[in-house]
């Protein structure tokens, strides 16, 4: 079912083959974007949750991930010591910056789910499409006692975690460790440390190797089961004594990361995707594959978000001295999010299969 | 999507058109079967759960349902006063006899689900196919504390309900009300009270009207939503303050009953289906439709069973002074069974659509 290679039939290159220069240009652009976002983040101040500050942090993470991924995929074309030293630092940075946003998004997801489960018409169901970003926390006026208490408990726990993550991010941005990362990125913005042979080397085999790692990982997924609706797999072990995260989720999370690396490698060689201008010099094949890979990637993001939300609900249920009604609501919520996990796997399987069928 | 008529293209009648005599023969046969089962039930004694006694009670219910359904569908061909008086009595009887079995099956379903949710490999998942009838209650050795306590609570509550239902059934079988029913059935076994015109009348329009009622009810179901996997509809209101049963389930339960009436009407006119001998004088078309209707009916049985199991879990969670871990496990279990409800709707939609597509 899974194809072994993504690139050959869908390679959007109509012009000359990309070289190490394309790669250097991409890294420079991402480094410049990183520095711009950093400046913006400093200017907007560190007010937690201010829209500009959130945007700047997101842009910082975005370029940090792209730099790190590109260094990884094309590492034989780059100064090894330098890029090997830089990658864990970028991972630390984007991980630290991501946490605050993740807790906020998790809380929003769980409160929306509680409203849906309480039959509140005011909030859309996640499965009816992507949930709109709530400007404020949904009110809990029409929840049952158990659901309201569960919502309040999650609110307390995740808001505390978010506040801590915010402090940790501020502390990280003021640390000498961070300044060393920023200095390295500044170097990258002016002079990419390519190996002597890289400028004229063909980088495509490295991108192809990344594709292969992705396809290998996908072919190890239980896609036949995932493609069978209501297979009830995601909730197996839902009451097992092991705490979250579920071991069954790990290969899906891994595919999510490999799919991201695949996407960044394509961006590096063929230019960044620009959904606003789909006609800009891209072939139909490339655009079609982008749409499919994007929906596969979105399914895996949803998979990760739902898995983490389920774990948060189950963790909240272990809070001492909660009322049975609260625990019951958290159990329903946990199972609901594990079904979202299963639904996301089904959605991934559907996207991926379309792709495999679409490219002979 | 739903077709308006089931019969015309799939009518398995290759011989002469059925008459009121066919109907009388069917009713006599069912009445005879009722009396035979009743004798068997008395002979096996009233030991709760003995295999023969369970089989006899099932056979009694089976013929009571068929007699009642046939009286309903073909009531203009039968003595009105007599059949109108008999139907509620048959419904009372089969309802009373069904309860004991239903509680036992519900407990078994819930304990199997708890095992599946605890990651126990010893028990199959319901979605992997029909669960084998467990000879004994599954042990709870490898459940978590919460799941084990939830299992023990459900065991206590449903076993008590089952015991009460058993006593009620025994009491019913000894009552003068029951003896009056048995007397009426004995009359039916020798002389079916047809109207004077019925012997030569065409009973098919009454069967067609039953089909139409079925198709009308199906077309009122939210089949488009149900056919979209993971629509998350069944768990909406999962935490609502209204107690079970869910109002959204009612139209599906209604279709289940109408599908049963449709099946009995076919049996009455064209002979009982015999899955052991599919070649016995049945056309391919008839056999194919039987398989589809059977799978649609099985989906709706599963829908009913899962809905009632979900309600039992949620009702157990309202037991005073239970531990939060117990309540949490019951919440997970409730949501799991509501997802079974959703899965059953999906399965029904798939069977029904196949039928509509298969018969042009």
Give structural notes.
Two copies of one chain form a homodimer. By secondary structure, chain A is mostly helical. Chain A has helices at 7-10, 20-43, 51-73, 80-117, 145-173, 176-190, 204-219, 223-226, 250-270, 284-316, 324-358. Chain A folds into two domains: 1-18 and 202-360; 19-201. In chain A, helix 2 packs across helix 6, helix 2 (20-43) crosses helix 9 (250-270) and helix 10 runs antiparallel to helix 11. Chain A has eleven helices and no strands. The longest helix of chain A is centred in the first third of the chain and has 38 residues, at 80-117. Chain A binds chain B through residues 114, 116-119, 125-127, 143-144, 146-147, 229-232, 235-241, 314, 317, 322-336, 339-340, 342-343, 346, and chain B through 114, 116-119, 125-127, 143-144, 146-147, 229-232, 235-241, 314, 317, 322-336, 339-340, 342-343, 346. Chains A, B: Pfam families: CHAD. Chains A, B: Residues 1-20 are annotated as: Disordered. Chains A, B: This is CHAD domain-containing protein. Chains A, B: Residues 16-357 form the CHAD domain.
């Amino acid at each position: 079912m899974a194809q072994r290679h993504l690139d050959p039939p869908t390679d959007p290159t109509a012009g000359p083959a990309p070289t190490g220069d394309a790669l250097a240009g991409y890294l420079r652009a991402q480094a410049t974007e990183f520095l711009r976002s950093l400046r913006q983040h400093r200017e907007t101040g560190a007010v937690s949750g201010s829209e500009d500050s959130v945007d700047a942090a997101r842009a910082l993470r975005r370029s940090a991930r792209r730099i790190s991924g590109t260094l990884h995929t094309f590492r034989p074309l780059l100064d090894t010591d330098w890029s090997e030293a830089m990658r864990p630092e970028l991972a630390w940075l984007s991980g630290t910056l991501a946490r605050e946003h993740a807790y906020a998004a998790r809380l929003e997801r769980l409160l929306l789910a509680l409203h849906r489960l309480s039959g509140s018409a005011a909030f859309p169901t996640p499965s009816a499409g992507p949930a709109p970003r709530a400007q404020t926390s949904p009110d809990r006026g029409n929840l049952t006692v158990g659901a309201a208490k569960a919502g309040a408990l999650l609110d307390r726990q995740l808001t505390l975690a978010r506040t801590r993550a915010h402090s940790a991010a501020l502390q990280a941005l003021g640390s000498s460790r961070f300044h060393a990362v920023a200095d390295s990125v500044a170097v990258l913005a002016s002079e990419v440390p390519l190996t002597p042979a890289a400028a004229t080397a063909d980088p495509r085999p490295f991108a192809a190797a990344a594709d292969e790692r992705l396809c290998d990982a996908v072919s190890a997924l239980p896609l036949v089961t995932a493609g069978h609706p209501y297979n009830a797999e995601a909730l197996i072990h839902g009451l097992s004594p092991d705490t979250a995260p579920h071991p069954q989720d790990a290969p899906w999370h891994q595919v999510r990361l490999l799919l991201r690396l695949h996407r960044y490698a394509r961006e590096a060689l063929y230019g960044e995707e620009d959904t606003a201008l789909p006609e800009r010099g891209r072939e139909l094949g490339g655009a079609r594959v982008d749409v499919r890979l994007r929906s596969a990637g979105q399914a895996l993001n949803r998979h990760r978000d739902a898995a983490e939300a389920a774990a948060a609900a189950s963790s909240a249920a272990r809070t001492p001295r909660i009322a049975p009604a609260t625990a019951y609501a958290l159990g329903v919520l946990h199972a609901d999010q594990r079904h979202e996990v299963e639904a996301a796997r089904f959605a991934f399987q559907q996207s991926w299969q379309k792709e495999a069928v679409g490219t002979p």
